From TrEMBL:
It comes from Actinomadura namibiensis. It holds the Pfam family HTH_IclR. CDD domains: SR_ResInv. Keywords: DNA integration, DNA recombination, DNA-binding. PANTHER family: DNA-INVERTASE FROM LAMBDOID PROPHAGE, SERINE RECOMBINASE PINE-RELATED. GO terms for biological process: DNA integration; regulation of DNA-templated transcription. Residues 11-149 form the Resolvase/invertase-type recombinase catalytic domain. SMART domains: Resolvase. The active site is at 19 (o-(5'-phospho-dna)-serine intermediate). PROSITE patterns: RECOMBINASES_1, RECOMBINASES_2, RECOMBINASES_3. This is DNA invertase Pin-like site-specific DNA recombinase. InterPro entries: Recombinase_CS, Resolv_N, Resolvase-like_N_sf, SSR_resolvase, Tscrpt_reg_IclR_N. GO terms for molecular function: DNA binding; DNA strand exchange activity.
Length: 207
């Protein structure tokens, strides 16, 4: 698949991807064939969208020329997330290469001037709205947590002498609750600190 000389005029180039080797490409390949795309113009990948190395897509992008159209069953075959898909579609458009989807609820066709183009613009708008909503939700969650007195972010590291004091208390037989009360170190952190080997010159309690 996907090994041929490029004709003088624009052509449709198919792309199909499944996320694992246990999944099958048949449905996507059948849709591309029904759209009139021959096997020699179909590029495939059997890897996760999260995998950077996608040789099939890389070969398609290297082969495509202005006037060509990349055809997929659904637009999500082109990337790991909506932002990546939109960026790729935009970059292809800058090179004069269109993108068409066959089975999305609103079929996408960036080379068209009608509903296919409008559908893509709506998709881009929705992706930008979702990015804004996600940022707003994260900011709201931080504000609520801070108002409740909960710290956001990485835990504060405790001073070495405080950790040494905790180890000393442990060596003297103090419980975790007693050590936490005397040092101010949460029990979850104490488990980690006390599991670490103490420095060789540090006293561990009365012999």
């Amino acid at each position: 698949m996907g090994t041929h000389d490029h004709p003088a005029t624009g052509v449709d180039l198919g792309y199909a991807r499944v996320s694992t080797t246990k999944q099958h490409l048949e449905r996507q390949l059948a849709a591309l064939a029904q759209a009139g795309i021959g096997d020699d113009r179909i590029y495939v990948d059997k890897k996760s969208g999260a995998t950077v190395d996608r040789p099939g897509l890389a070969a398609l992008l290297a082969y495509a020329r202005p006037g060509d159209t990349v055809v997929v069953q659904t637009l999500d075959r082109l990337g790991r997330n909506m932002r990546e898909v939109l960026n790729l579609v935009h970059d292809l458009g800058e090179k004069g290469i269109g993108v068409r989807s066959l089975a999305d609820p609103l079929p996408i066709d960036t080379a068209a001037e009608g509903m296919g183009r409008i559908a893509f613009l709506l998709l881009a708008l929705f992706a930008e709205m979702e990015r804004t909503f996600t940022a707003e939700r994260a900011a709201h969650a931080r504000a609520v947590a801070e108002a409740a007195g909960r710290r956001i972010g990485r835990p504060v590291a405790h001073a070495d002498d405080t950790i040494e004091y905790a180890r000393l208390l442990k060596g003297q037989g103090a419980s975790l609750g007693q050590i936490a009360a005397k040092t101010g170190i949460p029990k979850t952190s104490l488990h980690r600190y006390l599991a670490e080997p103490a420095p060789a010159n540090m006293p561990m309690g009365d012999a």
